Amino acid sequence: MSTGGFRIPLHGAQPAAMQPVTGTRVHIDTPHLVTRSLLASDVTPEFAQWFNDAQMLQGLNLAPLNFSVDGLRAFVASFDNVQHFLIGIFSKPQGQLLGFYNFSVAPQHRVATLTLGADPKIKIGREVFWESWFPLCDEMFDHRGIDKITSRVLTTNRKLLFALIDTEHFVYEATLKQEIAGKDGKRLDVMVLSCFKDLSLRPKKASTAPAPDA
């Protein structure tokens, strides 16, 4: 999954006078999913367990986070829906959390960095990400002041590359050779995929997202 998207809060809660401005939460309904800003109350022991899962962290190239339930709730609550978004993908009608999007926004440049995570114990087809991603992409471009979204994906992360490549949104921009050091010290390549508000920069040959299985 994309590297560099997460921000880990290092300080405790700020005094009320110093609290940052918070934006409107994201909430998108589609036929099979609800894609919305995560709340502290969404954090369960099961969510904390898979958020700390070694397989998911390996895809993000992150060291163990070792979040407790309370620690993860504080982390989720720290996102302001202005420059930092943590958005969950929930199934209907069960309301099961399947995965999440993390956006870090640079407002002066109107660009966002995307990180995508998924419950490692659930087999999720790319149609799930497509159903949630297409309207979320429109939300970020039309209502959040973003012109470009970039995801930096480890070339070893086949699952995420399969989800993003050959869609009507993402364009391959570059492969950065030996861009980062893995947790084992080995150099890793990173593929840069981007999505643009400018339709002329979208893929020339659009792909139709497959319908989820009934």
TrEMBL record:
InterPro entries assigned to the protein according to its UniProt record, in alphabetical order: Acyl_CoA_acyltransferase
Record-linked SUPFAM superfamilies: Acyl-CoA N-acyltransferases (Nat) (SSF55729)
Protein name: GNAT family N-acetyltransferase
